[in-house]
Amino acid sequence: MTMPGVRASIQGLLKSARLRCASFETAEEFLRNKQPDGPSCLVLDVSLPGVNGLDFQRQLRDAGIQIPIIFITGHGDIPMTVRAMKSGAVEFLTKPFQDQDLLDAIVRLWIATV
C-alpha cells in the first residue's frame, strides 16, 4: 500500500473508533500546523518523504515538542526498534499490523494521560 493509502487507512480506522485525527503528508506539514490541545499522539512512519521518522523524532525532541510517538514501518529491524524506543517512542509496529494493535496502543497512551 502506498504511503497516502496507509495514511487514509489509518485515518479511516481512527475515525471508525471515534478518535479525532489529522493526517499530514510530510514532517514539515505537521510542524506548520497548530499542535493539538489535550491528550494526543503521533502515528509516525519510519519512511517519510524528506526526513526519516527517526530523525524527525529527534527534531521534535530537540525543539521541545513532547508528543508520544507510535512508530509504524514496513522495513523495521531490531536496531531500528531499539533506537526508536530509547528515544522515547511508546510503540513500534511492523506492517502489516493488526488494526487492534494500533488502537490498543492509542488507548494505552490515553489512559496514561488522564
Q: How would you describe this protein?
A:
The protein has helices spanning 3-16, 27-32, 53-62, 78-86, 99-113, and strands spanning 42-45, 69-73, 91-94. The protein is built from 5 helices and 3 strands. The chain is mainly α and 114 residues long. A 3-stranded parallel beta sheet has the order 1-2-3, sandwiched between helices.
Mean pLDDT: 90
Strand content: 5-15%
N- to C-terminal distance:
35 Å
Q: Estimate the helix proportion, in percent.
A: 40-55%
Layout of helices and strands:
Elements: H1 3-16, H2 27-32, E1 42-45, H3 53-62, E2 69-73, H4 78-86, E3 91-94, H5 99-113
Parallel strand pairs: 1-2, 2-3
Descriptive labels:
single chain, mainly alpha, three-stranded parallel beta sheet, 5 helices, 3 strands, 47% helix, globular
Summarize the structure.
By secondary structure, the protein is mostly helical. The protein is built from 5 helices and 3 strands; from the N terminus they run ααβαβαβα.
